[in-house]
Amino acid sequence: MKKKLTTVAFNGTAEQLAKLDELIAKHKGEKGALMPVLQGAQGIYGYLPIEVQQHIALSMDVPLSEVYGVASFYSQFILNPKGEYAVAVCLGTACYVKGAGLLMDKLESLLGIKNGEISADRKFSLDATRCIGACGLAPVLTVNEEVYGRLTPDMIKGILDKYN
Amino acid sequence: MENMVNIKINNREYAVPANSTVLEAARYAGIDIPTLCYLKDINEIGACRLCLVEVKGARGMAAACVYPVNEGMEVFTNTPAIRKARKTNLELVLSAHKKKCLTCIRSTSCELQKLALEYGVDEDHFQGNNNVYPIDATTPYIVRDNEKCILCRRCVAACKNMQQIGVIGANDRGFDTHIASAFEKTLDQTSCIGCGQCIVACPVGALYEKDDTQKVLEALADPTKHVAICAAPSVRATIGECFDYEVGTDVEGKMVAAMKALGFDGVYDMNLTADLTIMEEATEFLERFKEGKNLPLITSCSPGWVKYCEHYFPEFTDNLSSCKSPQQMFGAMYKTYYAQKAGLDPKDIVFVSCIPCTAKKFEVTRDHQNAAGVCDVDIAITTRELARMIKQAGIDFRSLNDAKFDEPFSIGSGAGAIFGATGGVMEAALRTAAEVIEKKELQKLEFDDVRGTEGIKKATYKIGDVEVRVAVVSGTANAKKLLNAIKSGEEKYDFIEVMACPGGCVNGGGQPTQPAVVRNNVDLKALRAKVLYTADKNMDVRKSHENSAVKKLYDEYFGAPGSHKAHEILHTKYVKRGL
After folding, report:
1. B134 CB near a chain A CB, below 8 Å?
2. Which of B123, B363, B468, B505 pairs as cysteine with B234 (C-beta 3.0–4.6 A)?
């Protein structure tokens, strides 16, 4: 299935672009340079929108289709922007059997966005993750670096309110 | 003497070139190992696992297409284990393939279908859910049906490696892998040039031309329409392949007879407007050369190349010849000059071209291609589509008596004939330019340096007392190389011919598909081009400016080459598209 791609507008800055150009210059002519450049670019922008990938493609003389092929192959590369608060629900086995799916449903309905999407004001993004290794606290979700465990759906609103 | 090694294939001894692969070595032994992903020099990735063989001492089975031979090697190509592995792999490929074989455009020419039959597979052995993909029919030339795609990547390799364009690639991962453009853009949103090399590379029915035969049939059935068709130089050299003729058979007479049997009101030779193009282009070249303006002049007959230039080298669009392509010139001339002469309303004319090219389907939709106020050419159909129409109409192609093109557009010169091969346009132009400048007859008509299937050919000709530096390139990868050399100031030319497809129109994206086993072992470009050069050699009129039909066009209508009227009707404009 095709990946769902963002429609949020790109708002890169001149400083970010300068950093990206510096990074590309550093790797110019290197064999297998695309991966480290993409990784670095993600560090600069937080994700890899088409504008960034197109710039990389042109600067490195690699077809955009190849850049996107690599970016869409590895799950570590992020194609859609994350919100100011990135909500991640663990859907690992332990969390799942403890009802993480219900947490996801609740989040989707409260935030008005689906798994993998970002809110229009860029405040929240929502993702499902694999096991994050906190099975003892199942079901678990994280908001940026904060971890919330032993959750039930009715606790979700309270968590979100802390960030609103 | 080539370096040879001794190997055993199925217990029999052979001496084979040391640099060959097991696949190539087996060919020497008269054994075709099946492949799906392998295309020589273009796609050598060992991915489809159909060419598996057993090599004594090697771990597991080896992919013959990428496995090099070495001294004393023992190879087995047809053991029960090999047969079983290939069959299983075919069944796995089929498990994710939309098996609509009865109505598939590639039925009977599909490489997967042929192997499935040979290996007696159970097409439903592995069952499960399959991904659903929309058909991409957003361009006027290429249709992609990813549910039939077997992920061999031959199209990706043709686009990225051979043409160095790369508007398609493999997106996502694992079971979700699919071939598409970056960020899932549809093909019309990319800088695809429509050359169709992906189509002729596809082993199955995942890629095909946008079929326009229905439009032609509807026009033919409409009594209020005057429907004419003209055939590009290279179609007669290839359409025989669709009717089981050997590659490189000239079937001009039967092709014309078939077109007449289909009911066209006029069946004409595009070689004529190839000659007309030369008259205009040679005049344009002489003018630019004299003024030293917008040099090098670059040919504009190949619509894939024109679109490539507009996307990837917009700084060269002023160098493109302003001449319309022979296809467009024919339509433009027909709907102005001929319409007037025959008392036809251009609106009632449906002008069809039969061409070896998918990009021509885009060309007919371009702006500034409507000399009579209606589009110059209404429908462009490929060689494959014409063959399809002939078969559907029940016309027994092989038993047709040869027929001749209709007057008054039946005459094409030898110069027009060779337009369909790389170097042909250049040679045709040189024949005319040389005689115009020197004002005497050429001793030798063959310009051998610009002949042949190499991707880049360069030559300098002394014409009169000036030297003209020319280059001929085919395939956009070579065009890219040459244009970059010109941009950097490394090389300088006065006149350049570019054709988007490697080898020129004879190897166009609208030509009959040939399976990998033919593409890998037969020089299609050379064999097909030979038809055109042979036709040229046997013609009485071999120079565009000596074509009496062309002379008549100028006498009766256009005045002189490069005249105001000629510019209005036979020339066009380009756009800087960028990426």
Report:
1. no
2. B505
Q: Judge: domain B4-78, CATH 3.40.50.300.
A: no
Which of B183, B185, B189 is the best residue to mutate to test the A interface, defined by the most A CB atoms within 10 Å of its own CB? B183
Which contiguous run of DSSP H or E holds residue B497? strand B495-499
Q: What is the residue extent of each domain of chain A?
A: 14-73, 85-161
Question: Would you identify the CATH topology of the domain A85-161?
Answer: Glutaredoxin (3.40.30)
Q: Is the minimum CB–CB distance between B180 and chain A shorter than 8 Å?
A: yes
Residue B337, C-beta contacts closer than 8 angstroms, at least 6 positions apart: B553, B556, B557, B558, B569
Contacts of A53 in chain B (CB under 8 A): 182-183
In terms of Cβ atoms closer than 10 Å to its own Cβ (0-12, 13-18, 19+), residue B292 is exposed
Q: Do B166 and A5 touch (CB under 8 A)?
A: no
B481 touches chain A (CB under 8 A): no
Buried b (16+ CB within 10 A) or exposed e, B472-507: bbbbbbbbbbbbeebeeeebebbbbbbbbbbbbbbb
- Computed over every residue of chain B, the mean pLDDT equals 96
- Mean pLDDT across the stretch B368-373? 96
Q: Are B17 and B6 in contact (CB under 8 A)?
A: no
Check B169 against A58: CB less than 8 A apart: no
Cβ within 8 Å, pair A2-B184: yes
Q: Does B216 touch chain A (CB under 8 A)?
A: no
Residue A55: Cβ within 10 Å count: 19
Question: Hey, is the C-beta of B174 within 8 angstroms of any chain A C-beta?
Answer: no
What percent of chain B stands above pLDDT 70? 100
Question: What ranges do the domains of chain B cover?
Answer: 4-78, 120-209, 214-570
Strand segments (E) across B319-465: 349-355, 379-382, 456-463
Q: How far is B365 from chain A (nearest CA, A)?
A: 26
Q: Give the largest CA-CA distance in chain B.
A: 79
- Contact list in B for residue A8 (CB cut-off 8 A) is none
CB contact under 8 A, A68 and B171: yes
Q: Which of A66, A68, A75 sits opposite B183 (nearest CB)?
A: A68
User: B184 — contact with chain A (CB < 8 Å)?
Assistant: yes
Nearest-Cα residue of chain B relative to residue A68: B182
What pLDDT digit, counting tens, does each position of B62-73 carry? 999 999 999 999
Q: Which fold, B120-209? A: Alpha-Beta Plaits (3.30.70)
- pTM beyond 0.90: yes
CATH topology of domain B214-570: Rossmann fold (3.40.50)
Rounded CA-CA distance B392/B477 in Å is: 38
A63, A68, A73 member nearest B173 (Cβ): A73
ipTM of the complex: 0.90
Which residue from A1, A2, A65 is facing B182, i.e. has the nearest CB?
A65
Percent helix, strand, coil in chain B, to 5, is 40, 15, 45
Strand pairing class (A124-129; A85-90): parallel
Query: Nearest CA to B427 among B435, B375, B405?
Result: B435
B167·A68 Cβ contact <8 A: no
Q: What string of DSSP letters covers B434-478?
A: HHHHH-S--S----GGG-SS-SEEEEEEEETTEEEEEEEEESHHH
- pLDDT tens for B169-195 read 999 999 999 999 999 999 999 999 999
3-state secondary structure chain A: CCCCCCCCCCCCCHHHHHHHHHHHHHHCCCCCCHHHHHHHHHHHHCCCCHHHHHHHHHHHCCCHHHHHHHHHHCCCCCCCCCCCEEEEEECCHHHHHCCHHHHHHHHHHHHCCCCCCECCCCCEEEEEECCCCCHHHCCCEEECCEEECCCCHHHHHHHHHCCC
| B169: contact with A, CB 8 A cutoff | yes
